Amino acid sequence: MEWDSYKLDKEGLVYKFCSEGHRGKIAKVIRFQEFSDLGRNAFNLAFGDLDEARDKIDDKVISNNGDQLKIIHTVAQAIIDFFSSRPRAFVLIWGSSHSRTRLYQMRIARFWAEVSKQFEILGEFENEWLPFQKGVNYKRFLIYKK
Which end of the chain is more exposed for a tag (fewer CB within 10 A), N or C? Predict the structure, then answer.
């Protein structure tokens, strides 16, 4: 998938990049963390601004830097790269708020034709994992390579 995205710096399971927009440069972090609740080879995707003082991800801040689509594309590139070295992994994604989860859902739906060629995506709806469908409000998403 060829999309306009930021250059990623990778160190292990951590990807960093810099958002550049009308609010300046903002350091962003994507971290794949092992997630034992779903069994072996499952990872949670954590994403947000880098809180350099605490060396943590702030997933609640709203940057409003005017580059949302480019950021989403960059996260997608990190997911693709992650699966290139772990093709049998499962990645769990959900937002820090209902509105962020909804944003992820809208972006998946928007690029579904491209995404679905490489990945299976399940959505959690009423405590059940179902194949992704546009128009259903999911609690979280599980992605794995076809």
Answer: C
